[in-house]
UniProtKB/TrEMBL annotation:
<dbReference type="Pfam" id="PF02424">
    <property type="entry name" value="ApbE"/>
</dbReference>
<feature type="binding site">
    <location>
        <position position="194"/>
    </location>
    <ligand>
        <name>Mg(2+)</name>
    </ligand>
</feature>
<keyword id="KW-0808">Transferase</keyword>
<keyword id="KW-0460">Magnesium</keyword>
<keyword id="KW-0285">Flavoprotein</keyword>
<dbReference type="InterPro" id="IPR003374">
    <property type="entry name" value="ApbE-like_sf"/>
</dbReference>
<feature type="binding site">
    <location>
        <position position="311"/>
    </location>
    <ligand>
        <name>Mg(2+)</name>
    </ligand>
</feature>
<keyword id="KW-0274">FAD</keyword>
<keyword id="KW-0479">Metal-binding</keyword>
<protein>
    <recommendedName>
        <fullName>FAD:protein FMN transferase</fullName>
        <ecNumber>2.7.1.180</ecNumber>
    </recommendedName>
</protein>
<feature type="compositionally biased region" description="Low complexity">
    <location>
        <begin position="1"/>
        <end position="18"/>
    </location>
</feature>
<dbReference type="GO" id="GO:0016740">
    <property type="term" value="F:transferase activity"/>
</dbReference>
<feature type="binding site">
    <location>
        <position position="307"/>
    </location>
    <ligand>
        <name>Mg(2+)</name>
    </ligand>
</feature>
<comment type="similarity">
    <text>Belongs to the ApbE family.</text>
</comment>
<dbReference type="InterPro" id="IPR024932">
    <property type="entry name" value="ApbE"/>
</dbReference>
<feature type="region of interest" description="Disordered">
    <location>
        <begin position="1"/>
        <end position="35"/>
    </location>
</feature>
<dbReference type="GO" id="GO:0046872">
    <property type="term" value="F:metal ion binding"/>
</dbReference>
């Protein structure tokens, strides 16, 4: 599932300046404390590439005297480091080494430790609706490094699911905080697919800001974060991709110091006997979610949190998800498949972002 920019960035973001918004658009504007700072120059650079099995793009306002190739190299270096630590598709990555390690206590790098503890804190917050220990289940259902399940194979059996569940679960993972280490129980596989792209977006954004490009829009595989405004004082406008057949109007959002992530049930999925099996797994059942939610979109100051919370709300479902979002003050939008067709729901914080006059 992706979100698409409406501000002339490279694919997969879509062209369209703020003045080109249609009259019937739904426009989302976040609350802002004061006017944003003026960008460091009047230029906008567009950079792009590939990483983490997907594409990335960045639009940034460079500081005076900056070199474009230096910024390109800096972004690529950040993403290469994310892959080196967190990619289970890289046999020599740190996460792959932990996943293949025998039972024992293994010291983790600062980067892996930091994201793992943040993920476990989130798991505690949502009672396991997002869980960084489901790698064995991800592989079993054909969404991990071993590849997709053959169409000739039956679905995983109850025994296979139970075996994968036995080495999964955020409550089973023990940490030795003094040693900055995680205890491998034997066969447990960490998986950050519901959080890694958002984390990478945050890292790239922080790197750009440190280099003086304090106004920018970063996108990796559909997860986006905007900082500051463009030289014309317009925000970074992005279009939220709609579920096919959605009753919602075209929605554009101003990403001013804000991130957005969307989880959908049709982008990474397989069909078996006319039933859709999406890539989002419920750690409580060990199976793909099957609760009717077609899409969840979340706005947050952190792309990592937005990414993780979109997954968590999808797992929580069409009733508990909106209830949790309202209780936590999250700006979230839900699209549910029902016998009446697609139905949308939105949290109060999301509704408060809607600007009827701007639309």
């Amino acid at each position: 599932m992706t979100a698409k920019s409406s501000s002339a960035a490279p694919p997969p973001l879509r062209l369209g300046a703020a003045a080109e918004r249609r009259q019937d658009d739904r426009v989302l504007i976040p609350p802002m404390a004061g006017a944003p700072e003026r960008p460091p120059s009047d230029l906008i650079w567009s950079l792009a590439g590939e990483s983490m099995g997907t594409t990335w793009s960045a639009r940034l306002v460079p500081p005076p005297g900056a070199a474009q190739d230096v910024f390109q190299a800096a972004i690529e270096a950040e993403l290469a480091q994310v892959v080196a630590v967190f990619s289970p598709w890289q046999a020599d990555s740190e996460i792959s080494r932990f996943n293949a390690a025998p039972a024992g206590t293994w010291r983790l790098s600062d980067e892996l430790w930091s994201l793992l503890t943040a993920a476990l804190d989130l798991a505690d917050e949502v009672n396991g609706a997002v869980d960084p220990t489901l790698g064995a289940l991800v592989d079993l259902w054909g969404f991990g490094p071993p590849g997709a399940r053959s169409a000739l194979l039956p679905l995983p059996s109850d025994a296979e699911v139970e075996a994968a569940l036995a080495v999964s679960g955020w409550r089973r993972l023990r940490l030795n905080r003094e040693a900055q280490a995680a205890i491998q129980i034997g066969g447990m596989k960490l998986d950050f697919s519901g959080i890694a792209k958002g984390h990478a977006v945050d890292r790239v954004s922080a790197r750009l800001s440190a280099m003086g490009a304090t106004a920018h829009l970063v996108e990796i595989g559909g997860e986006l974060l905007g900082r500051g405004v463009k030289p014309d004082a317009q925000p970074w406008w992005v279009e939220i991709e709609a579920v096919p057949g959605s009753p919602a109007p075209r929605t554009v959002a101003a990403l001013v110091d804000l991130a957005v992530a969307t989880s959908g049930d049709w982008r990474r999925a397989f069909v078996h006997e006319q039933r859709l099996y999406p890539h989002t797994l419920d750690g409580a059942t060990g199976r793909p979610v099957d609760n009717g939610l077609a899409q969840v979109t979340v706005f947050d100051a952190s792309a990592m949190r937005a990414d993780a919370l979109a997954t968590a709300l999808t797992v929580l479902g069409p009733f508990d998800g909106p209830e949790f979002a309202e209780a936590m003050g999250l700006a979230a939008h839900f699209v549910e498949r029902t016998p009446r067709g697609l139905v949308e729901r939105m949290s109060p914080a999301f509704a408060a972002m809607m600007d009827d006059e701007a639309a």
